[in-house]
Structure formats: structure tokens, C-alpha cells
Amino acid sequence: MFTALHFAIIAPFIAAIFVPILYKLFSRIHTGWFVLTVPTILFLYFLQYLPITANKETVTAVFDWIPSLGIHFTAYIDGLGLLFALLITGIGILVVLYSIYYLSKERESLHTFYTFLLMFMGAMLGVVLSDNLIVLYMFWEITSLSSFLLISYWYEREKSIYGALKSMIITVMGGFSMLVGFVLLYTMTGTFSIQETIAASSDIVSHHLFLPAMLTILLGALTKSAQFPFHIWLPDAMEAPTPVSAYLHSATMVKAGIYLVARLSPVFAISGEWFWLIAGFGITTLFWGSFSAVRQTDLKGILAFSTVSQLGMILSMLGVGAAALHFDSLDLENNVFVGATTAALFHLINHATFKGSLFMMVGIVDHETGTRDIRKLGGLMTIMPITFTIAVIGSFSMAGLPPFNGFLSKEMFFTAMVEITKFQLFNVDTYGVMFPAIAWVASIFTFIYSMVLVFKTFNGKFKPEKLDVKPHEAPFGMLLSPIILVSLVIVFGFFPNILSYTVIEPAMASILPSLLQEGEQFYVDIYFWHDWTPALYMTIGVISVGLFLYLGMKKWVGIYRLFPDNVSFNTLYDQAIVKGERLSEKIISSHMTGFIKDYLLYIFSFITAALVFTLFHKGAFVVETQDLAPISIYEVILAVVLIASVLTVMFTKSRLKAIIGLGVVGYTIALFFVIFRAPDLALTQLIIETVSVALFLLCFYHLPQIAKSLETIRFQLGNFIISLAVGTTITLIGLTANSNRLFESISGFFIENSYNEAGGKNMVNVILVDFRGFDTMLEILVLGIAAFGIFTMIKLRLEGKEQL
Amino acid sequence: MKSNDIILQTMTNVVLFIVLIFSIFIFFNGHHEPGGGFIGGLMTSSALVLLLLAYDLETVQRILPIDFKIVAAIGLLIAIGTGMGSFLFGEPFLSQTYDYYTFFVLGELELATALLFDIGVYLVVIGVTLTIIQTIGEDK
Predict the structure, then answer these.
(1) Which residue has the higher pLDDT, A795 or A673?
(2) pTM reported for the whole predicted model
(3) A268, A299, A322: which is the final residue of a domain?
(4) B3, B111, B132: best to mutate for the A interface, most A CBs within 10 A
(5) Where in the sequence is the domain holding A650, given as residue range(s)?
(6) Which residues of B touch A786 (CB under 8 A)?
(7) Do A762 and B73 touch (CB under 8 A)?
(8) Phi, psi angles (nearest 5°) of residue B111
(9) Is A793 a domain residue?
(10) Is residue A681 in a domain?
(11) Apex A75 CA angle, A73 and A76, nearest 5
(12) Which chain A residue has the Cα nearest residue B123?
């Protein structure tokens, strides 16, 4: 049944349809104000599910879509889904509000922007609220698509197109691999439902497809969440307008991969490979992202790598959290690995708040100064005090400083990383020590780039000569969204427990369901003071070493020059694209010559080979002569005319004669239809012949001047053999078809039913428009496409020698 | 190509209407006798092609200022629209039905929904044929 919940998911899509209309009708009002209502209403709508999920209840609404394939549009709300839904709509409100001030209604085409944005919002809701893997996949790809469209929003910039294509190629590649994984899961469990798959998870662990399914699905999640080495698309995606970067490329879409990992944890998390892959990729990305962020000079570049790094951090916590499953009889209060999952979810929310505010802050700086280059910026502290405050709170939270929410989740992260070294399974006791080490080093870099972000922009010398415009504080409306977000940073910092049992704990129940007995719940209590734990020492170490390195940055920043520019994943990607294009061009141009005679050659050779092979392989070739009607004199005459006119076409030296000869062939065939009592076919054939002869005459003008060379027609053996083969094959097929009566003819059905069922006495026409109306519809569709194709090819012909 | 073919032009003026009327007859006749949207459409277009051959493209476009691309598009829309129309009655896509009605003067006639679909086919065929011919003909 189609419920309100389904409607909530597709509501953004429906709203997207009306955006262009509203844009046209109310050109004086910024379209964003209309769009703002959609996430607001949806946010309020989803809020009402909070008490339900907090009680560990779930809501399932099934709408049959393609039941025969097991594909249902199943909306499913549990703690995890609701957390994401609130994140998507909540950040959505702020981003739309921000965009109203960021995008000028005079200069930008707002309707496309908001259409794509709403499309994304709906797709993202679909991803997190679908229980059916195929439906999830569909929404997943729509998010990739809308991200592509939004990155290329300023499509006249070459870099936008480059970034959009890159993100599309990488995420869709991953998505496709994910689809393979879903199908593999289906072959193991026989269902596309996630909940049913989870229920069956204990049966499939030892299945030989378990690992392939896990790897292919993970490839999708890792590419989407920009994990090392697939992270390269995210920095280039920063060409999108800043509201998009804040929304898609830091708060929501890139977390889809994390969502998928969390969602499928109950299925895969029991295996050691899962632990190592998730935690390993996560921690590597954490380090590489923060390390690369320090060398960036573009503010958005810093934020992009920072996002990559933070996503890695969340993922590594989820990986460590999977370790909790290996303790059966545990008391939930003391299981530190459960704490890792808490930390992952808490940091997910925190990251959305501080990174969202930072992106908006950078957008403001860009908007008011005209640049994002930290080499040109500086000394804005007094000019933009509010923006500065936002930047300080956001960055300090990101660096993990108290009293902000980032500190809390960073502490929990350190705790998890320290505890994991004591884990006894999967060789963790041997290699586990690298987890806290890498985490600590990465956090130092995180601290450094957070400081760079604030102090290179707002501190130091003001350089007005490098700016195109005179900077000033942004309008209030633009500041509103980041102010709300940094307020949340502080609120979650001081009162983290308002989230614990409302949002975080229910979501944990979805990730680690097997640890809970009926009626139990996880123990979630987040607080500042943990005593003098290793985590606290690590934080103090991060701050002191980080401060030291930040101040002496000039001395050591040279190490980045040790990495040669031409050895990077970006170069690898670029080379793969270039080489791939060159290779496919070579392959295609080797046989796509542009001459129709070559194409006919391929087609005819293939048909002949395929048909002859089948005919003899199946032993189908028989000629029955019993049932044949006698050959009448008319048929003989027509055959003679046919042969004569074909010979004329072949040997004539005049093109006009050839056309007329072809016409005669067609008309003769029409006469055959008359003899065989097929008036419809005869009529059609007659008129088609007429029209095509007329068409030929029109084309006459365009035919190249090879007519003169026709005088010396050369005998081409290859063509001769192929034409002979085609003729023979078709004749053989005709004879065989007539002699093999495998089934009763279908015409009996039509004779019986065309008058009774369809009320028509002309059977041919009844078949065309009624019994097989679908065929006709698609045929006229093809006709239409052909006509438009010819029209565009001729009318919009490229001038000169552009490469196609 | 300016042509000045008096005989063909005079003939065309008369024949055109005969062919057009016949094509419409054949179109409506399709349900019970040979004919239908496909043949009817082709015949109408052949009448217009005759016009094209007798006169030149500019003249024909002046007489018939129709964009045949739009005709094809409308035809497709009608065909798909009638297909979707069956949804309104809870039937699968493209279900057809028919019934008999008595009309003033004409007497009892059969009306079939298939005819609506056929109109779509008819228009598409005309639109496509003439779009192609005009495009190629105009291209110099």
C-alpha cells in the first residue's frame, strides 16, 4: 500500500517538478523560499518517529512495485534510518536557507539548481529508508546522478565538468559493483529485503559467495564515501556551489557509504575480513586525508580532504565496533567496542554540524572577498567578526578541542583505538598497535589544518591589494545557517546526552542487533571528564605537538615536495581515462569506417553465419514438397519480371534506370502480395515503394558523382560471395520454415478472436492496433526517433571537421 | 529547384484531393477492410509528396505551414496517451475495447478505442515521412 511514508520519500521529487513552474511564475521571489518548505515539513514529519524508534519499534510499509522479481518499494524506519533522515532533512533546511543568500536570483538559473537539489534530497531519503536492496540501489544511483548535475552546475567552467565526470565515473563504477554484490546476496538468501537478509545472515557466513558479495558491496560504499584511494573525486567535486559542497559532499551523500556499511554490518560484521577492511581503509583514509589537507591552499580543498579524513575516521570506528560481536556474554556497559559504534554515530552527527558550518563559512569568505586562496587571505578577523567566530568554533571542534562536540567524539575515538590493541582475534594483537599510532599522527595533522583554516584566513596581515572586492561582513541571512550549526556544536558539546537515547542508541540497535536481548538497550553516556585516560593524554599530545608543528610549519612543509607530482592517484585516473579513450577509439575506428557498404558487409556476414550455423547445428534443414500449391502462370511472369529488373539494377550504367529498376522490384513484390491475397500488405508495399522512389529522386541531388565510374563496374569477389550467401541462406530459411511445422499456426487464434474480442473484421489491422498494439507503439516510436535523428543529423550538421 | 511543369501541376491539383480523401477513407476503413493508420498515413504522405514533386518545397511550405516534427510528436503522444487511458478503467496498458452506437443519419456504427490509437499511428507516419523528406529535400 502507498502510505504517507512513501509519499514523504518521493515528496522532494514531486516538489522538483513544480520548481521550474514556481520559478517562472514568481520570478521576483527567490525560488529557494518555496523549496525551503519541503525539508522543513519533512523534518517535522520525521521527528514524530523519534519516540517510536526510541522504543526499539520499527515501521515498515510495503508498496508492491515489481512483485514478480521480489522488488518492493518497502519503506522501513528504524533508528539508523531515522538518524539519517533527520540529518538529510535537517541539514537540508539550513543549506536551502543558506543558498537563498548565496545564489543570486538575478544571475543564476535557480530552477535547475533547486530541481537537482530536491532530486538529491528525495534520492538520499530513498537510500536510507528503503528496505529493498534494488530500490536502494536505484536511489543510490540517483544521488550519484544529482551530484553529477550539481557539481557541473556552473557547466561553462572546464573544471566543473572535469570534477563532475570524475565523481560520476568513480561513484557509478562503485555503485555498479555494489549492484553485483546485491545480486550475489540475493542468490544466497533469495530475498532483496535487507531485514530478511539480516535474519538469514548466520546461514550465509560460510557460503562461498559471502566474501565476493562483501567485497563488491564494499567497493560501492568506499567509492561513495570517498575512501582512499577512491577519495580523488571529492576534492574535484568542490567546483560545485558551496551549499552543494556543504550538503552533498560533506553532510549527506558521502555518508551514504557509511550508512551502507552500518546497515549491512549485521550481515557481514562477524567476519574478520570485514573488520580489517573497514577499519583498515578507514584509518588509512583518516591519515591520508588529514596529511593531504595540510598542503592545500584552497580553503575548500582543505575542507574536502578534511571531509575525506573524517569519513575515514567514522568508518574506522564502525570497523572497530564490529569487534563487539565477538563477545557473546558481555555486559553491555563495559564493552568498549560497543563504544566505538556509539562514537561513530556521535561523530557522524558532529561532523555534519561543524563541517557544515565550516563549509558555509568558507562560502561566506569566498562570497565576500572573491577568493578562497589562503595565500591571498588574511587579517579578516576584524572585518568579519561573526564569520571568524563561526570559523573558530567549527575548526576547534574539528581539531578535537574542548568544550566542543568534536572533543567528545575524538576522545571516544582514541579510547576505541587504544582498546582495539587488546583485541585477541584476527591477528589484531600483532598489528593492532598501528591503529592508535596512525590515529594519533592523523589527529595532529587534523589539528594543523584546522588551525590553518582559521588563522591563515582571519589572522595575519590583511592583504587588500590581492582581493578584487572590498570585503565586509555577510548579510544576516547568510550567517543564520552557520550560526545555527555552531550553536549545535556547542549544545552537543555541553549536553551530548540529549542525543544518546533519542537518536544514537536506537541507531546502534540497528547496527548491532544481535547483541541485544529483548527489552535490553545499549548503555550510552557521553561525558567530558574521563579521568586521566590514555585518550586524554593523546589529546594533550595532539595539541602540543600540533601547535609546535603549526608554528614551525615553514620548516617542514617541504616534505610535501618529496611526492612527485606525476605519481598520484589523480594521474593514474587521468591516464586511465586518456588511455581508455584512445584504445576504444582505435578499436572503433578499425571497423567503423563510415561507409555503409562496410556496415552492410558486417551485418550480412553475421546474419549468414549465424543462420547457417543454427540451421545445420539444429538439423532443421528439411524440404517438404507435399503441401505446396501449384505454381500459377502469374507467379512465373512476376518472377521473370523481378529477375529482369534486378539484373537491370545491377548492370545499368544510369542511376535513374537503377532507381526505376528498384521501383519495379518493389511493385512486383506488391503484386505477389495481391496474388497471395494479402491486400493490406500489398497496399502498404505499393505506397512505400512510391514514397521511397520519390525520396530517391529527392536524394538524387546529393548522391556523390561516382555515377561516371559506374561505367566500369568492377567485379568484387568478396561482395559477390556474400551476396550469394545471403540469398542462398534466406532461401533455405524460407524453405525450411515452410517445411517445419513445429507448432500449430497462431492464425487460428486471430481468426477466432479478432471479431469477437476486438470487434474488427480486418484481422491484420486488429493485430496491429489491438492484439499486438505494444509492438506498433514501439515501432512508431522507432520511426519517430529515426525521423528526429535524420533531422538533427542533417540540420545540425557540424561545421568543418569537428571530432565526434 | 524551380520547376515549371504545367501538366504535372494541374494534375496534382485534382489528384491531390482524391488521394487525400481516399487516404482518409482507407484510414477509417481499417477496422474491417484493408487499410488502417499505417496505410492511411502513408497514403496521405504520398499525396503530399506528390505535391512536393509538382511544386517546390518553399511553395508547399507556404500552402501547408505545418511543422511535421510536431505532427509526429503529437501522434506519439496520442498513441501513448490512449495506452495510458486504459489505466483510468483499471485495465493494463493499451487495452482496447469497442461498442456499437446509433447515430443520427449514419445509423448504427461501431466505435472502437483502437481507432484513437490508430489516429496516433496515422499522425506519426505522416509526420515521420514528411520530416524525413523535407529535411533531405531542403538540404542543399
Answers:
(1) A673
(2) 0.78
(3) A268
(4) B132
(5) 594-763
(6) 128, 132
(7) no
(8) -115, 125
(9) no
(10) yes
(11) 140
(12) A780
